[in-house]
UniProtKB/TrEMBL annotation:
<keyword id="KW-0032">Aminotransferase</keyword>
<dbReference type="InterPro" id="IPR015421">
    <property type="entry name" value="PyrdxlP-dep_Trfase_major"/>
</dbReference>
<comment type="similarity">
    <text>Belongs to the class-II pyridoxal-phosphate-dependent aminotransferase family. Histidinol-phosphate aminotransferase subfamily.</text>
</comment>
<dbReference type="InterPro" id="IPR004839">
    <property type="entry name" value="Aminotransferase_I/II_large"/>
</dbReference>
<dbReference type="InterPro" id="IPR001917">
    <property type="entry name" value="Aminotrans_II_pyridoxalP_BS"/>
</dbReference>
<dbReference type="InterPro" id="IPR005861">
    <property type="entry name" value="HisP_aminotrans"/>
</dbReference>
<dbReference type="GO" id="GO:0030170">
    <property type="term" value="F:pyridoxal phosphate binding"/>
</dbReference>
<keyword id="KW-0028">Amino-acid biosynthesis</keyword>
<feature type="domain" description="Aminotransferase class I/classII large">
    <location>
        <begin position="48"/>
        <end position="344"/>
    </location>
</feature>
<keyword id="KW-0663">Pyridoxal phosphate</keyword>
<keyword id="KW-0368">Histidine biosynthesis</keyword>
<comment type="pathway">
    <text>Lipid metabolism.</text>
</comment>
<dbReference type="InterPro" id="IPR015422">
    <property type="entry name" value="PyrdxlP-dep_Trfase_small"/>
</dbReference>
<dbReference type="InterPro" id="IPR015424">
    <property type="entry name" value="PyrdxlP-dep_Trfase"/>
</dbReference>
<comment type="pathway">
    <text>Amino-acid biosynthesis; L-histidine biosynthesis; L-histidine from 5-phospho-alpha-D-ribose 1-diphosphate: step 7/9.</text>
</comment>
<dbReference type="GO" id="GO:0000105">
    <property type="term" value="P:L-histidine biosynthetic process"/>
</dbReference>
<dbReference type="GO" id="GO:0004400">
    <property type="term" value="F:histidinol-phosphate transaminase activity"/>
</dbReference>
Length: 349
């Protein structure tokens, strides 16, 4: 039923990928005059005059140890955003193919589709923010290449039912991408262990949220070796810089510290839920499996502007489908949350 070769764009199936100097020679040598680098060095002390490892093997090994996934099943992108965009470029013929999203959800699936001139079909979530499987099935046709599922979902903060996702994985012959950017804050299990079960599964994770490295730009895709090979074929040769690789390696040694932060953020989230719940202007706080809350308030725009005047910026999602009246609030530090609550207590219509 699932045929990766058939799913690929013709031009990508036939593509001869760029072969870099670092690809063609990987052994031991003393003199490297094969890549037109600056042989004298650089203004920086390190070996930044050299091109980085195009396959980031050391970083992948470190991720492999933490996640229990072999390095050949890992692709690294310049943020998840690159992992998203490359799937469009490899699988979707502009002006012909389509993809399905389940809004309200992360905006980049749609923006990236538009950049690539790919049609976006929308199976809006049900009122409980779960998949509308009937609508989804009706939207699929022979040109549907990708289905995007974000779990925990941004901006609704909930996890998507595992059984529903399994139904999509078992029945859709294209790629199912599960974006797990917030999985570390969730009570639910990742799909990362199911790669051998589903040849059409791509799991996205990122260093931007739980790992606290949004500035580094490092996204991860986990999939079958065949899908990772496609990623490697279409990626820019040196998409992850030497600096990023070095810093990521250092960070990956600190799993313990990251786990402590995750525990703290979850505790801060639960405290914030209790505190917000006591404010008269708060109508509803949706359950959260992430490091943010979707909060329905009286006069969302008014509250948003009131907070801005106090120098506090939250995300106004009140114009987004199913999110009328809602603000999306990231869990801050204890002090930041206290400032938020103080400002909200001072709000009057
Ligand atoms: C924040 C976020 C990401 C992270 O994107 P990066 O490019 O890795 O920073 C991915 N997906 C979702 C749903 C997000 O909210």
């Amino acid at each position: 039923m699932f045929n990766l070769d058939k799913l690929l764009r013709d031009n990508i199936r036939q593509l001869t990928p760029y072969s870099s100097a670092r690809d063609e020679f990987t052994g031991e040598a003393r003199v490297f005059i094969d890549a037109n680098e600056n042989s004298l060095g650089s203004p920086l002390t390190k070996w930044y005059n050299r091109y980085p490892d195009p396959h980031q093997w050391k970083v992948k090994e470190a991720i492999s140890k933490i996640k229990g996934i072999p390095p050949q099943h890992i692709f690294l992108g310049n943020g998840s955003d690159e992992c998203i965009d490359l799937l469009y470029r490899a699988f979707c013929v502009p002006g012909k193919d389509n993809v399905i999203i389940n809004p309200p959800t992360y905006g980049m699936y749609e923006v990236s589709a538009h950049i690539n001139d790919v049609e976006v079909r929308r199976a809006t979530l049900l009122d409980d923010f779960q998949l509308d499987l009937v609508h989804l099935e009706n939207l699929v046709d022979a040109n549907t290449k990708l289905i995007w599922i974000c779990s925990p979902n941004n901006p609704t903060a909930n996890s998507i039912d595992r059984q529903d996702i399994e139904i999509v994985l078992n029945n859709f012959p294209g790629l199912v991408i599960i974006d797990e950017a917030y999985i570390n804050f969730s009570r639910h299990k990742s799909f990362i262990q199911e790669l051998s079960e589903y040849p059409n599964l791509v799991v996205l994770q990122t260093m931007s949220k739980a790992w606290g490295l949004a500035g580094l730009r490092l996204g991860m895709a986990f999939a079958s070796e065949a899908i990772i090979d496609v990623y490697n074929k279409v990626k820019p040769p040196y998409n992850i810089s030497q600096a990023t690789q070095e810093l990521a390696l250092k960070a990956l040694e600190e799993v313990g510290q990251v786990n402590d932060m995750i525990r703290s953020l979850v505790a801060l989230r639960e405290q914030l839920i209790r505190d917000l719940g006591e404010l008269p202007l708060v109508r509803h706080i949706y359950p959260s499996d992430a490091n943010f809350l979707l909060v329905k308030v009286d006069d969302a725009r008014g509250v948003y502007e009131h907070l801005l005047r106090a120098g506090i910026v939250v995300r106004d999602r009140s114009k987004v489908e199913l999110c009328a009246g809602c603000l999306r609030i990231t869990v801050g530090t204890e002090k930041e949350n206290a400032e938020l609550l103080k400002s909200l207590r001072g709000w009057q219509v």
